[in-house]
Amino acid sequence: MSHRNTVVILGMALAAVLACADVNAAGAKAKPQSASLSDASGNLHVPDKYRETYEYLGTWSVAASGKEGAKEMHVVYASPGTTAAYKKNGKFPDGAVLVKEVFEAATGPMTTGTVSHEQTLKGWFVMVKDDKNRHPDNKLWGEGWAWSWFDAGNPKKTTSTDYRTDCQACHTPAKSTDWIYVQGYPVLKN
Fold it and tell me: pTM value?
């Protein structure tokens, strides 16, 4: 075999190995990473670099009372692979992580009209799908999810103490859709 043929074969082999590594890396990214978001007792934290690695689900605008525009904007992300899994069977997969950023909104005139936009981060709401009842003694885990609010100043420590009193009331109208307002996320629809 000539030197040139050996170089070509080695190049093709290297390309195949790199392609397999890319496929394996992509597959690894598609798996929800909920285990790294909680300690042994089930206490959560806001995932690092979620804006770079999570999928954007959608944005909610909370209307201001008695004036034009929004008082808050809620921007929601899901862990990698969550939307594809949801599209398959209409359910969030065990371990899926949802992160909602809550911003105070600002409203003002622009060339397109009166516009509201994100202004100041108020905090995050994090949920982890839990089909396995991982932390039955933790008051932030129940109804198939872990639930936690984090103030903007500290993404590592929740201020929630019990999901039933601190979180669930806002989600009660969405109980029939697994406590999540799925109608606001067009990417979940086929």
Answer: 0.81
